[in-house]
Every structure is written in C-alpha cells, then in structure tokens.
C-alpha cells in the first residue's frame, strides 16, 4: 500500500458467473487533490472496477481477489454496513446520467439533505442550508427556489449539476465520476469539468472514468488505461499523452476528441474488444495490434512491467526498452 495514497487498489479481480473475468488484477493509487483517469473503450472494465470498490455491483458479480485501502480500511473486506457509512459521505459518485443517481420522485431538497441527515452530519435546518449552498456552488440559479423542484423539472445540464451538488454536499474525500459529461453538450461539459476542478483544488481526490482522452487530458493528473479488464498502461497524464507506450494507448489517442469539440486526427482502432468470456490467448490486444510482431504476443499473457514512473503491459515495448 502507498502511504500517500487516498485510495490504493491492489490486484482487484471481479467475475461474472464462472467464466467471465471482467476485472483481472487491477491496481492503482489515487492521491489527495489529484485526479486519476481510468480510460478504455466500452466494456474494458472501468465501471465494474469502481463499482467493486464502492460495493455496488450487480448481484451476479463476485469479487474474487484484491484489496482497496481507503483511510486505513480495506473497503473490500469491511462488509456492507460499514461501506454504507463511507459511501455518500467520504466517497461520493457522479454518474453519466443524473437519472441514474437521482430519485425522480423526491425533491432536490430531500435528495441533497438525505446523506447529511442519515450520516448524522447535521440537523435538518443546517442540512437545508448546506444543500442550498451546494446548489448555488454548482451554478444553479435561485437555489432557494430550485431546491423544492423535482429532477425532471430541470434541464439535462442543470440536472447534471444538481447531481454534482448532491455528491459535493458532504464534502467527500474521494469523488468517483463515471462518464459525467458524456450526456451533455460541449459547453456544459466544460462547465462540469471546471466544477470538478474546483473540488480537486480543495483537496478532494477524483477518479474520472472515461472513454474520452480529450476529457482526461483536460482534467486529470494521472492515467490508467484499461483493456479487456486489465491495466495495460499507467503514467502521469502528460507523459501518457506526449509519449504513449502501449499500442492500445496510441490507438486510443488517435481516436479521441479534444474538450471543446475540436477533432484530433480521428483514426478508430480497427476491430473491437474481445468477449471477456473468450479472452484471446497471449496478449488480449494482439488481434488488433499493429506491433504484435513477437511470437510471445500470441502465446503469453502480457504482464505490466513497472518502470520508474511508467508501466506498460506489452512484450514489444518491453523488448524495445
Ligand atoms: N451485469 C453484467 N452481467 C454480465 N457481465 C457484465 C455485466 N456488467 C458488465 N459485465 C462485463 O464486464 C465487462 C466490463 O464492463 P464495464 O461496464 O466495467 O465496462 P466499461 O469499461 O465501464 O464500459 P462502458 O464505458 O461501456 O461503461 C463487460 O465487457 C461485460 O463483459
């Protein structure tokens, strides 16, 4: 475990049924006041990784190994009751769609004050004050009035802000944001990222799950790239962008769009990610990889080679280094 880390995940494994390993030995650290991007195409295991840590997996999933240290506790070992005390208070989540996180039948007031009251952080009057302040902080006009509305009475962008206010109101140490800007237009995207930046500047650690390296480039300090349930590259964000090592990262960079909508050279990676119940023999990326020149690319599972500040899981990169 890294002593400086707010969250240290080690060798996490999560399976569905007997043959599908969705998360296969994933490790990373998140530091206070820093944002870690978890990037990868759809189905690479980003959400299952974070849902494992938060204890909000579907019933059919099982964590079969690993640790997730947060504030001296292993979140994977402490049990549901203890985890519920941490969730929403010390760790909060923001989702792609506010509809997923918010209850359509409750007013913003009920939803924003619920964690404060349930966790015993303050009384009802104080909770309301904090909720109004949080709505104002995320740029919702007339928060005193808006707090009495239901989520469906807000525009998509405002609902997304209200969800962020809901996550921020308990002043969590760690915020997990799962594709928080996918469903909004580019102007709102920028505003939401700036809101999250403010949170980071106040010392909150952020994990940003995204398939979009443009978003990660704008917001994150470090990055973990996932492919087929495994970490294939880990690096400071700037180094990853300037000098991507893993051929998959190179491919992702070639297919990303900058925040603000300006297109970079858009070259999608040919092929599609594997069905995880039938993982290719050898390196999981080799059927799509332009550099899979070594015999072992097709026969031996890749391993993450740890460098001073760069880790990559690619036989070719290891040989060339
Ligand atoms: N409810 C489920 N039942 C069975 N398998 C699942 C389930 N949810 C996820 N998986 C498996 O886990 C893999 C990883 O899913 P996950 O949602 O973590 O991907 P992701 O990288 O977050 O993708 P996206 O960007 O689309 O959310 C999927 O490819 C799928 O094989």
Automatic annotation (TrEMBL):
A cellular-component GO term for this protein = plasma membrane
Superkingdom of origin organism: Bacteria
Family matches, as SMART domains: AAA
Entry's Gene3D superfamilies? P-loop containing nucleotide triphosphate hydrolases
Q: Where in the cell is it found?
A: Cell membrane
- Where do the ABC transporter domain residues begin and end? 7-253
Any Pfam family: ABC_tran
In the bilayer, the protein is annotated as:
Peripheral membrane protein
User: What does the UniProt keyword field contain?
Assistant: ATP-binding, Cell membrane, Membrane, Nucleotide-binding, Transport
Gene Ontology biological process terms from the UniProt entry: peptide transport
Primary localisation category? membrane
Molecular function as annotated in GO: ATP binding; ATP hydrolysis activity
Looking up NCBIfam families in the UniProt record yields: oligo_HPY (TIGR01727)
Q: What family classification does the UniProt entry report for this protein? A: Belongs to the ABC transporter superfamily.
Name recorded for this polypeptide? Peptide/nickel transport system ATP-binding protein/oligopeptide transport system ATP-binding protein
Species: Kribbella rubisoli
